[in-house]
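agent> step 3/5: call structure_predict on target 'ATP-binding cassette domain-containing protein' (Massilia cellulosiltytica).
agent> reason: downstream docking stage needs a structural representation; sequence fetched in step 2, passing through unchanged.
tool.input:
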Amino acid sequence: MSNLVEIRDLHFSYGDRPILQNLSMDFPRGKLIAVMGGSGSGKTTVLRLIGGQIKPQRGTVAVNGEVVSQLDTEGLYRLRRKMGMLFQFGALFTDLTVFENVAFPLREHTELPEELIRDLVLMRLNAVGLRNAADLKPNEISGGMARRVALARAVALDPALVMYDEPFAGLDPISMGVTANLIRNLNDALGSTSILVSHDVNETFLIADYVYFLSAGRIVASGTPDEMRRSTDPYVKQFVNAEPDGPVPFHYPGKSLAEDLGLGGKR
Ligand SMILES: Nc1ncnc2c1ncn2[C@@H]1O[C@H](COP(=O)(O)OP(=O)(O)OP(=O)(O)O)[C@@H](O)[C@H]1O
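tool.output (status=ok):
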């Protein structure tokens, strides 16, 4: 099967509030696929459904041919072992060294001997350029470096699937570029499949093979970054050009300003 992850006709609500509707997405093996969209459009929810933290009301998420919502606890554990996750802001354990942070998933999920853990951690740290920072604590390195440590930790177990939730959030432009390149390089070097949730157009378009645009829980556009740059779709144009108003309105819906000021006019 060419897709590592397949989402079909997915519906998800929190209570009676629909969050995702009619979603179908493909995540082909070896590719780096981006999921973009404004705040609250449902991007993180997609990742949580793939990781099996929540279950859809309708439709399926299949990872490597297995329907995630049908797995028992043991099946889910086995599946998650093959997934690496970089959470929003990629928080590190502050009382552990850089080395111990990257070693953490290896110690949690494997019975590998200490020498092998050491070699694996140093290889991962080398890949993100921080082998010589192994003995430092998170508060002794910069925010950009901390994000790179979190990347090394996310791929420590050599995952088939790596999910990145807003990996560029809060980084300076140089660190953003470094992080983007690392995400691409790690994907290609490990032969994994990556899902990148982000609203940073520049970095994402630089490294993604394919992009899905979500708005209010639906796919409104998809294609390669080049196709998206040339798109005439008003939503994509607003997003790509960072226009403050468009299909996604600047104003929270309701009364017009004129009405509120008692002028009787329409907005
Ligand atoms: N546990 C929850 N209970 C109820 N509603 C939730 C819960 N988690 C998220 N939501 C709502 O679901 C919607 C989608 O959230 P989600 O986190 O997937 O958005 P997002 O696209 O990742 O946004 P952001 O970029 O701001 O993280 C939001 O409106 C959010 O308020």
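agent> step 4/5: record observation. The first helix runs from residue 43 to 50.
agent> proceeding.
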